[in-house]
Predict the structure.
Amino acid sequence: ASHNFPMTHHFQETGLREIEVLGFDSDYRLINWDIQNVNVRPEGTQDREIALVFGQRCENPCTFRVNAPHNVTRVDYYVDSWWIGSSQNPDSDFSLTYEFDLVGERHLTMIGLNNQNVVAQGSAYIEVEEAEVGIPDVPYFYQYSNALYPSSSCQNTAIAMLLAHYGWSGVPDDITASWGKNFAQEPHNLAYLFNTLASENGIEKRLYATTNGTLDELRAELDAGNPTIVHGYFTSYGHVMIVLGYDENGYWVNDSAGKWNQYFKGGYPYGWNSTIGKGIYYNKAYFEEAIATWDGYSPAPLWFHKIR
């Protein structure tokens, strides 16, 4: 059963704040974790103001979400006085995605309505930026849906996702049934397995393993639009996943185990979900600790795979 743990705090400053929530069991073991942005407004204004959930920058196309008073049933969005759309979905924080023809500074206005009556509004200047290289849409497999060794088949599941991206029609269990669960845990064996199956299935792409890589080399692969398999200390035993892209704050990945708790060797304490790991976004510092340090602090060479 779920429980609520309310807390009241009086902030000294208003504006967008990042709230980190950690959940512990009775033995003080971390079992849940989340970060949310909240907009702290001056007292007496909560009933009539609308505020953006995210900061002042966004990549085109931009997705807007807002904090709105409880009586708002629709939010209309305007940019530089031009209407760009409406949202009537409070469950998604009245989210709206819009692709701009021009990037740069724009003035965004949010109007909250109830039965056609304006009951709240807000505005902000935003900086619309060109998107980086698009994030590859790599098919996703959830390793705990595997029939064979679901808790120890991340490497075969990563291979299956990458093969499927290039046209293969199999599933991770096909690989495990033929190759076992241990062979691909070593980087050069992983590349050999991928290349063998790619050759057998008419796929021209080949993996090249490196065990002495750098973060700059990894980012160069992602800049070229190449999905990249990496090894790292996401669990105490190590874990393998596919990195899809990055920005200044973090990385997008296909994580076959679901949602990592973003602690070095921290594991996956949140419970399981068969889709949450697809295209999931992890904090830059925490992710790089897992793939580029021995202990969360001491630098280590990257184990990852270039594809050509």
In short: Helices lie at 154-165, 172-179, 187-200, 215-223, 284-292. DSSP finds five helices and 17 strands in the chain.
